[in-house]
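Handout, page 2. Input:
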Amino acid sequence: MPRRFKVRVKICSLALAAAGLILAGRAVQLQWAQRDFLESRADAQQVTEAVVVARRGRILDRNGQPLAVSAPIDSFWAHPDSLDALRPWLPQIARAFGSSARQLEDRLAKAQGREFVWLKRGLSPSRSQPVIDLGAPGLQLRREYRRYYPAGEYAGHLVGFADIDENGQEGLELSYDSWLKGRNGRKQVIRDRLGRQVRDVGGLEPLVRGRDLRLGLDLRIQYLAYRELKEAVERHQARSGSIVVLDARSGEVLAMASQPSFNPNDRAQLEPANYRNRAVLDLLEPGSTIKPLVVAAALESGAWSLRDRIDTGRGFIRVGSKTIKDRNALGVIDFATLLRRSSQVGATTVAMSLEPERLWSAFAGMGLARATESGFPGEAEGSLYNHQYWKPVDQAVMAYGYGLAVTPLQLVRAYTVFANRGQLRPISLLKRDDFPKGVRVVSPETAAAVSLLLEEPVGPGGTATRAQIPGYRVAGKTGTIEKLGASGYESDRHTAVFAGFAPASKPRLAAVVVIDEPVARGYFGGEVAAPVFSRVALGALRLVGAPMDGVQQPAEAVMAAQ
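Output:
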């Protein structure tokens, strides 16, 4: 072997040996001296924190039927710095998202300097899977939930809705947001070089699922109430309408509906005029539905009894400069006739015989113009100014329901006083396991007497014969209210109302129906609102299994009960 060749072999061997020693030394340095540092750097690049989104609690009706549930969805995001890596994939991603590659590129470009940018939110798992399968570098996935409302527009006004982040915005979704909302968890995950999650490392903070909310609402009665209200509003070409159905014994809201309506699943319908819950937020002058409360105040005062007669004269009475008239001159009447014929003069005569404080206390004691504390957000209080500021004409017009403002929910609650032998019980939007203790506001004897008298308007010759229910006795009162306009009360704009309960002998349900500004096929409460009550109550009584109690009581039965 030539000497020169041997020298070259030795030099190469020494060089290779030196290189090996250097590599071995570097390996030892990396493995031992810099091990902790390198591991921390690797973890920083591969082990990251991920948010585990908590599912919002369900809203259920009293029988467990879902009214609001959270369905899983997928949302995609990216770091703006990943634009170059994502650019080749953008056309395919855009097709799956239903947008254009240019839109996605612009969104990433405009978000430079931010930590992340949403590319698409709310895809169903079936639609998101093709995007996941692309394996596009830098495209991140986050599993979220979207609120879905199985009852749609039927229960929308009460349940309300949540936004895209599942934060309550209206209705019970808003008022019970903290109850329904869970707490997101955090975990450590390992991601590959493309940013895809490979496996979980461990949990940092456990998630807490939102709690379910069970309402007192009965979805079967709710369907019935919504259907009948909508049909009545359309039939009479009314501006709006509302209905509330209560369990007369427990104060639970079994149904609550408003018109116009909206579907919380369709965000295009989320306009304030549509999702306004008129049964809780709208105020109205109660009109003649206030007269049973006037009668109760008179009987409680001790100055009046059921045997007493009211002289309505020639059908009108003057209070100050105001003349109050009946449709027909009724002469001398009893309390049964006062309610059956809805005498303005009779109610005014009785009211004016009472001290203003007693009449005010009767209205306030039955919960009028005072929030029911139902828990519905923004509930209106109403208006009933202090008796110290009343003039005689104020007291007179209040006798037939003008000069004060209440909500439909307050009005139906007041009628449950007569159904509960004089006790005012709290309203509940949630399901109760027992009957709450009420506050006595009138004596049992007065409540029983007014309950019997309230059968008169529904009986023969009354203003509410269309509220009758076959096989059941009904107690209730109509109201036809002229609406206040810019220049005073307008005779061509009305609100039709019926308030009542059934079965009259042992009340199970109480309801109020309000139809605002009906313009076709009548406008009186007895012809517009009373039939809605009849149809809803009939179906509801059958659903709750209330036994029949006969037919309407004639006037003689009222007198015999004295």
